[in-house]
Structures are given as C-alpha cells and as structure tokens.
Specification:
The protein has 330 residues and is an alpha/beta fold. The chain is 40% helix and 15% strand. It has ten helices and ten strands. Helix 2 crosses helix 3. The structure holds pyridoxal-5'-phosphate (PLP).
Length: 330
C-alpha cells in the first residue's frame, strides 16, 4: 500500500485526543477519545483527503490533467476534490445532483472558490446526473483533455487505501499514549472509511471493533460494498462481521434528526467541538445512545470525527430550500 502512487496532501497525523468532559457527562462509564479528521489541513478538512492522496496519485500516474467527480450539492468529497485538485494543479469538474438553486448551496460556493467548474443536473434523479457526467467527460475528451473519473465519495479500493493508513495512524497514536482501543464509531456513507478502518484493525489491533453508523445507504446495500472493499484491501484476511447501526437513519440521507441535534449540542457544550448534521452528528448520536444504554460499559471508544462541518450551513430542513428531495446517496 505504501508503494502505491500518492500525492501528499497531509502535513502529518491528525490529532487524537481524549474527550473527558463528554465522558463525564455520560456518567463516566466509558473512556472516550476522538480522531480529528476534521482538522486535516486543506479545504476545511475531512476524511476524504485520505482517499484523494491515492486517487490523485493514480490520476497523475495516468497523466490525467483533469479530475471529474459526482455528489450532492453538500458533498464533502466534491469540495475536497476541488481543493486537492487545486493543490495538485489539476482542473476539477464537479457534477452535482440538481435541481440548481438560487442562491447556490453553501457547498457549491466553496467548490467554486477552489476553482472547480460546477455542473448541476436539472433534477434530483440519478439518471440525469449520470447522463450529464457522461456528456461532460465526452466534451473534455473532445477538447483534448485527459479526465480521470472519481466515483461518488472517492470510494473503492484505491481511495479506501488512504483509510487503512488513517487507521494504522490511529493505532500508532493509541499505542504511544498507552491506550487500547476497544471500539471505533464512524459514520458510514459509501463505506470506504469503515472498510479501511476494519482492515487497519485486523492488521494492528484485532481487539478493536469498528461500528459503522449508516447515514446514506441502508445496511442491505452498504454491507456488500464494504465486504468487497475489505476483501480487496485485506487481501482475503479474515475480519469480524461488519457492524452497521441503522438506528440514526431517521428520514434518510441529509435529513436532520433530533438525536443528532442533541448530540451536536452536547459535544459542543462539553468539549467545544462541532460536528455536522449529515454524517458525524448521526454517528455521535449512535455512540451516545449505546453508551447511555450501558452496551459498552468499561470500553475505550474512539469517535471518528470525519469532518463535514460546512454541512452545518446547508439548508437541510424538509425538502430543502430548493425543493430538492435528498434521496439515497449517489
Ligand atoms: C464528513 C463525512 N463523514 C463520513 C463520510 C462517510 O465516508 P464513507 O463514504 O467513506 O463511508 C463522509 C462521506 O462523504 C463524510 O463527508
């Protein structure tokens, strides 16, 4: 893995630190830590920079000059592709789910600040976005450009390789601070982050369980995708059954929930740390629910703070200010 083409985007490890006031607010029944992927150094941070190191490495190895990817208007992966592409000197085209809104979503305004060309599909239908993507790739090729297409969420074996290294980084930090990690709680959308962490745990800390909190696809769709990535990344090594928690699904992807809002307020008011409503607040809400139920008493738990903070400023209530209905991921 360390020999794969890689374009450096990180200055060093993301911080790993305890959350003593949150743990105390939960009755002191568990030891809580967090891995601060939200503090990675460019584009307002977030876990997808890990994937992009390897995806941009692969793009450069193929002598691509343009990155093309897809997502929702709030996509952290799209924003970070724009930022990382700027750092790598590559043109970036983002093809986002529509319909277009006025004013544009905050996420799109950030994408444009990073110099990306943003294309918004006419509707919220996946088929429309895919058709737009195809026509944009064809146009770029006709113009003599060499586009490299990145899947939704930067997921897949190449991108998730970065997540294996993130997991190994955590276990090294934990060993350095004399901490044995029983469990990692992570938001799971396309599943690449969870797959990478599962493989890292199998290599460096077999006692550690990885609890994925479903936010964008239900477990029936997500599990086979994670299993496939784990099989590829882990080279067939045996791992425990993938843990997926659907309890925070609420009304679906991009829909706020009362439990996520409560979790956001509790973390912010005890530790001064923010989470986002689409991914990390739902993962934190799952963690709080399990700890309050006594399911994990005595354990050392790491909350995987994957970033996503611009999501705090997205119009997510109901159907959204633009009438866009957030359906399943992609
Ligand atoms: C902030 C944040 N957390 C978690 C995830 C989920 O990561 P994955 O798609 O690897 O499951 C994403 C994906 O976009 C994200 O942006």
């Amino acid at each position: 893995m360390r020999d794969l083409p890689r374009f450096p985007l990180l200055d060093g490890p993301s911080p790993f630190h305890p959350l003593p006031r949150l743990a105390a607010a939960l009755g002191g029944r568990v030891e809580l830590w967090t891995k601060r992927e939200d503090l990675l150094p460019i584009g307002l941070g977030g876990n997808k920079l890990r994937n992009l190191e390897f995806l941009i490495g692969a793009a450069r190895a193929q002598e691509a000059d343009t990155l093309v990817t897809v997502g929702r208007p709030w996509s952290n992966h799209a924003r970070l592709t724009a930022a990382a592409g700027a750092r790598a000197g590559l043109q970036v085209h983002l093809v986002l789910t529509g319909p277009p809104s006025t004013p544009p979503n905050p996420g799109i305004r950030l994408d444009e600040l990073f110099g990306a060309v943003v294309h918004v599909a006419a509707t919220d239908q996946r088929a429309d976005r895919d058709a737009l993507l195809e026509s944009i790739v064809a146009t770029l090729q006709a113009e003599g450009r060499r586009p490299y297409a990145i899947a939704a969420g930067g997921s897949g074996t190449i991108g998730a390789t970065g997540q294996v290294l993130a997991g190994l980084e955590l276990f090294e930090q934990a060993a350095g601070s004399g901490t044995e990690v029983d469990r990692i709680v992570v938001p799971s959308a396309t599943g690449g982050t969870q797959a990478g962490l599962v493989v890292a745990a199998s290599m460096a800390s077999p006692r550690t369980r990885v609890s994925g909190v479903v936010v964008a696809r239900l477990a029936s769709e997500l599990r086979p995708a994670i299993d496939a990535m784990v099989a590829d990344l882990g080279d067939g090594a045996s791992v425990p059954e993938i843990e997926l928690d659907e309890s925070q699904w609420g009304d679906g992807y991009g829909r706020p929930t009362a439990a996520a809002d409560e979790a956001t307020r509790l973390l912010a008011s005890t530790e001064g740390i923010l989470v986002d409503p689409i991914y990390t607040a739902k993962a934190l809400a799952a963690l709080l629910a399990r700890v309050r139920a006594g399911a994990w008493d005595g354990q050392t738990i790491v909350f995987w703070h994957a970033g996503g903070l611009p999501g705090l400023f997205e119009p997510l209530d109901g159907a959204g200010a633009d009438g866009n209905d957030p359906g399943p991921v992609r």
